[in-house]
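Lab meeting minutes (informal)
Scribe: AK
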Amino acid sequence: MPPHADVGDLHDAKEPLRRAIAEWLNLRVAAGEMAPIPESLIEALVIGPIAEVS
């Protein structure tokens, strides 16, 4: 990504990973292994802590 990427570019770049994580979590929900969470929280819960230390 260029140093001054557009917000839309950042969203587009992160979408495949977010979608893959959401699909994996949805399988866990369907199996009864975890409670459902809104997809809007997935990045904050999964990616957020990683982003803080990288």
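Next up, CB showed the second protein from the same session:
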Amino acid sequence: MDKSPLSFFLPQLDGSIFATLQIIFALVFVAAIILIPVLTRLNARPGNWQRRLAAIEGADHQAAIHDTPEQLSQAVATAPERWADVLPSLLLVFGLLGTFIGLGLALNDAAGVLGGADALGSLTPILDALGSKFKISTWGIIAFLFLKIWAMLFPVDAARLAWSTRTIQQRAALAAEQQIQKEAAAGLQQIAPIVQSIDALLAVQRAEAQRAHVRHAELLEALQRLAQPPVGTGRAVSRPEDASA
């Protein structure tokens, strides 16, 4: 058996049940550390978050209630982002599960050879290979560390939280503006009857002023007619003068 440090991290391909188990676990770990970062980078975008928010609000037929940016961030997270949050811990537990399965198989093999004549000789290769049962746990720890380091280098959660904060601030500003508009509309509705009353009063005053102007014009015309002397009076005065001459 190869006891080099590199061989400890490689699957043991000896045709045994544990070798098949190692291959299955290795494929799961490799797929996780490749697919999750790639899918997360492809889906963790503001456009996808906005579509998620629109879908949530459309399903409820009303604006979703998110009091804090953290709640909104959790609500709009895409499936790869959710998996990226929980998968490191799952891989760690998955690795421990594989190790316990391997130890269980090794103990079963040990129990089967203890009753033989050369029990110690038969038990030696089993004990020698017992350390390899911890490979799967080691892979789980490596996958856990890899995904955690990737999450620190590419803080998707922080970017989504910042987007959620901006979205809530924008919606709060829009709601405040709409409230101001509603209050202004309510104020205009209250002022409208007063304005209509003033307009009616002004119309009455204009009509009264127009009638007064007409009466004043008629009065002036009447005074002008009274001020003019009659035509016959002038001729009657001129006749005695002509007679005395």
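CB comment: Confidence is low (pLDDT under 50) at residues 240-245.
No objections, moving on.
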